[in-house]
Structure formats: structure tokens, C-alpha cells
Write a structure and sequence with these properties.
Distance between the termini: 99 Å
CATH class of the largest domain: Mainly Alpha
Shape: elongated
Radius of gyration: 31 Å
Structural class: alpha+beta
Number of strands: 11
CATH superfamily of the largest domain: Transferase(Phosphotransferase) domain 1
Number of helices: 9
Largest sheet: 6 strands, antiparallel
Length: 360
């Protein structure tokens, strides 16, 4: 469609807003009402084999959106069928996509992302509470608009499907690689509400770090240097969203929303756990290094008078370790090493005294 073209003589094309896959979105002017709308053109495929899937997908999107009423979702006001395609006339959202923002700002502020995450959770929960549940299946920055008042709008329902309890897996594999959950590509079960939670987690990762996720990246995203870009609270939330196994993810959006609503408390708790874990790892590292040292020195002095004493003390300490609870076993182990080091220190003092006495 070119600027100035008419759709069914009713809507004048003003400009191309965007395109992707088999669709284009235009800004059009309603000649009768003098109002601007967005017109999504779904182009018909060239071969007959894909025609049925095309029509079915387009009609599913239209039928789904027509029965929805939520401030974060655009309304459909008209559907026009022409020879070359179907035009879905809907609310025009004046604003900017999060994809566009990320290109300009690289990553976004935590407070802002937290606000948007709550709004996205609420709109996904609205979709999931429909009967049957509606699975969005294409959450990503490019499909999220921010209106001039700062609120979120979810666009592009071309990948939606209704959840079917009797299905074992999706009949059509749809979704954007990197953001889409493993089950969206067949062989790993049917997409459900947890599928949208996965793609929301990947989207939040992108918004907070500026790093675009890639296919099969879930296991790597929160490792190494990448973690430094996220607070401990966000690490916990995103990790729980993007497990490959859906049973390990948040099971519903309200469950995720509870953590988002108590983010500061969660972040503080996760930070304390992280510090304790780091402290244990550091202490464990010291224990390992000291253990190696003690072992080497014990080999040297095993034939001395201290050998039987150390063996008895170590046996006693290992008995304590076996009986100790988790918080106590490390202390018992350290106590054993401390005793061993004292004896080793005493041994070398004696050797030094002998050498001095001999004048060496």
C-alpha cells in the first residue's frame, strides 16, 4: 500500500508504521469520522497450501481481540477483506515501542521496568483468565508500546492461541527465537500460561541489561559477568521465569506479581542470601586450601611423636562432623584443622630449636 491509497474507500493510508513476517501496519485516516486508526494488513500467501493456515490465523486473531476489553490492549473497530489481504482496523497507539527505546538507551531504569513488568503481568493475567485461556506467545520489546502517558500497551496478536486441555503440544510453532519458550517449537508439550511467563522473563532481561537474548540462552543468561548488570532481586525473578522446565517457573502471573509488588523486600532477602553464600564459598575455599596444606605437612610428620595424637584428634572430629547439622559441620571441620595446625606449628618450632642447638 502506498501513501494516499484507500482501503475499501473508507480509510486513507497516511504512512507505514512497521512490518514483520506476513503483516504490515499502516497509519490510516477514517474519512467519515476524521479519526486516525492503525490498519494491520495481513498479506495472503502465494500458494494455496498456506491459504487455510493464513485465514485461520487471521480470523483467530480478530475473533480473540474482539472479545477482549482491557486498557492495555488495542480495540478492533473494523475488519476489511480484500483480494490481496485482510485489514484489521484498530486503535492507533501514539507512543514508542520498547524495542525502539532500547536502541536509543541500551537499557532502562529498574524502577521504570518494575512498573512496566507489573502492568504486563496484569494484562497477561487478564488473557489467561479468559475461558478458554488465551496464550499470547509473542512477548518481546517490539510488541510492547509505551503510550504518551507512560502506560504499557500490548500489540500484535498474530501468535495468540486458545489453550486446549486435551492437546499434547501446539499444532503450529510460533514465536520469536530467543524470547519464545522451548515448548513453542514442538516436542516439549503444549504452550500454556507459563509459556508467556518465560517470554516475559526474557523480555525483562533484555530491558534491564540491554542484551538481546538468543535461542537456548536460558542456561547462560544469569552466569558470569552478565549477572553484574542485575540486582539480586531481579536475578531471582528472571531465573524463576526462564527455567526450561515449565514446572520450575512461576506457575501463574499473580504469583509473579506478588514478587514484583514486594520487590524491595525480595531484593534485600536475596542480597543477604547472596552474601551468606559468597561467605560460605570463600570460607570453603580457605578450608580446602588449608586442608591441602595440612595433608602435605601431615605426610611429613606422620612418623613423628605427633602422628598418633593427630590421628586420634582427626578421628574424633570426623565423628563430630558426621553427627553435626549442616550449619555446624563446617565449624567442626575448622576446629579439626585448627588443632592440626597448632600441632604442626609446634612440630616446626621443635625442629627449629633442634637446629639452633646444633648450631645450624
Amino acid at each position: 500500500m502506498e501513501k494516499g491509497n484507500l482501503i475499501q474507500g473508507k480509510y486513507e493510508v497516511l504512512e507505514l508504521l512497521g512490518q514483520g513476517g506476513m503483516s504490515k501496519v499502516y497509519l490510516v485516516l477514517d474519512l467519515k469520522l476524521g479519526k486516525k486508526w492503525a490498519a494491520k494488513e495481513i498479506v495472503r500467501p502465494q500458494n494455496d497450501r498456506e491459504e487455510h493456515i493464513y485465514v485461520q490465523s487471521a480470523m483467530t486473531e480478530v475473533a480473540t481481540m474482539k472479545r477482549l476489553d482491557h486498557p492495555a490492549l488495542p480495540r478492533i473497530v473494523d475488519v476489511v477483506e480484500e483480494r490481496n489481504g485482510i485489514y484489521v482496523i484498530m486503535d492507533y497507539i501514539e507512543g514508542e515501542s520498547l524495542e525502539s527505546m532500547l536502541k536509543r538507551e541500551e537499557h532502562l531504569e529498574i524502577e521504570t521496568v518494575l512498573k512496566w513488568a507489573k502492568e504486563l503481568c496484569e494484562v497477561l493475567d487478564y488473557l489467561h483468565r479468559q475461558e478458554p485461556p488465551i496464550i499470547y506467545r509473542d512477548m518481546k520489546p517490539g510488541n510492547i508500546m509505551v503510550s504518551h502517558n507512560g502506560n504499557i500497551k500490548l500489540i500484535d496478536f498474530g501468535s495468540v492461541r486458545e489453550y486446549k486441555g486435551q492437546s499434547k503440544e501446539d499444532t503450529v510453532c510460533l514465536g520469536t527465537r530467543g524470547y519464545a519458550a522451548p515448548e513453542q517449537f514442538g516436542g516439549k508439550g503444549q504452550s500454556d500460561v507459563r509459556t508467556d511467563i518465560y517470554s516475559l522473563g526474557m523480555t525483562l532481561y533484555h530491558l534491564l541489561t540491554g542484551e538481546e537474548p538468543w535461542e537456548n540462552a536460558a542456561e547462560l543468561l544469569l552466569e558470569g559477568d552478565r549477572q553484574t548488570k542485575l540486582t539480586d532481586g531481579w536475578k531471582y525473578i528472571i531465573r524463576k521465569c526462564i527455567w526450561r522446565n515449565p514446572n520450575l517457573r512461576y506457575q501463574t502471573c499473580p504469583e509473579l506479581l506478588r514478587d514484583l509488588n514486594h520487590y524491595e523486600k525480595l531484593n534485600k532477602k536475596c542480597r543477604q542470601k547472596s552474601r551468606r553464600r559468597k561467605s560460605i564459598i570463600e570460607r570453603g575455599g580457605k578450608v580446602i586450601r588449608v586442608t591441602i596444606l595440612v595433608f602435605i605437612l601431615l605426610v611429613i610428620i606422620q612418623e613423628t611423636e605427633f602422628g598418633p595424637i593427630l590421628k586420634e584428634k582427626m578421628t574424633d572430629c570426623f565423628d563430630k562432623i558426621k553427627k553435626a547439622e549442616k550449619p555446624e559441620w563446617l565449624s567442626a571441620f575448622i576446629d579439626m584443622l585448627d588443632f592440626s595446625l597448632q600441632k604442626i606449628y609446634h612440630f616446626f618450632n621443635l625442629q627449629r630449636s633442634s637446629l639452633n642447638f646444633l648450631g645450624l
